[in-house]
Amino acid sequence: MTAAAPGTDPASSPLARLAAEGATGALHGHAGALYLADGAVVHAESPVVPDVGRRLTAGGRLSAEAWEEAVAEGGPDYRAGRFLVEHGRLSRGELELCHLSALFDAAFFVLFPPDSSQRAPERFLKEARHWLGPVRPVPVPLLQRELRRRGDLLRRAWPWPEVDTAPVVPVPGAVPAGAPGAGPTCGRRAVLQAADGVRTPVQIARALGRSAFTTLLDVRRLAAAGLVRTPPPDTGPGAGPQARTPLPARTPAATVEVSLLYRIRDALEAL
User: How far apart are CA 17 and CA 41, in angstroms?
Assistant: First the structure.
């Protein structure tokens, strides 16, 4: 299985074929993997994205010990997620919401890695399963639609992808202290406070235990507001963010029936 040709939508090639075949297994790439069951995506993981465990423990919802117990006890049987629910650590809704957020987050970076040297996933391991176990399968068309939506959000926020991979550098004095209505929202303020001129957006996301995509979007919005610096484009041969894997192509808006979980997810991302 080969990678999608440059300039095409990677989500429409190997992933779409596997969905049409009703495949079960793991689609691996340089930036992570997508796990499928009967053609639907059931899990996604990427080293640049906080996983379910990091989100739950960083936010204080679970102790590190409770998460490690679930992995140790339920992981070998591919039921770590079910273990958390059965033992009263999480409600089913909490698990689904956290898993869904992590899945969409990781899938974006797996299919559209920020590092231009990384290709979209191309290696498929049949029948591979993830130790978390099935939680809420996501049909591939829905995943593709969500990734296109996220690509559009990034472009509309600030069409300079250089900020995606560069250290986040606050602009001193950009927001006067105590100026009513002048400061960033709560989520963006947390990102701004974590920006030390060294951490990149995904490193800030890991430090905060929050969505890497939402952090990326916050950084673009902060750059558009003049609160963080936008680095100059790297115009060297084959270099830098200019050559990164293209984001999903824009598509016309469509009326989509969305469940309560998806509406909650969108509300959380807007914080």
Answer: 13
Encoding tokens for residue 241? 């963010």
Q: Which residues of the chain have pLDDT under 70?
A: 1-12, 115-118, 174-184, 234-271
Give residues with Cβ within 8 angstroms of 52, minimum separation 6: 81, 98, 99, 102, 132
What pLDDT digit, counting tens, does each position of 116-144 carry? 666 777 899 999 999 999 999 999 999 99
User: Largest Cα–Cα distance in the chain?
Assistant: 58
Give the global pTM. Answer: 0.79
Per DSSP bridges, beta strands 123-126 and 40-45 are unpaired
Give yes or no for a contact between 209 and 57, defined as CB atoms under 8 angstroms apart: yes
Closest CA relative to residue 228, chosen from 242, 243, 216, 240: 216
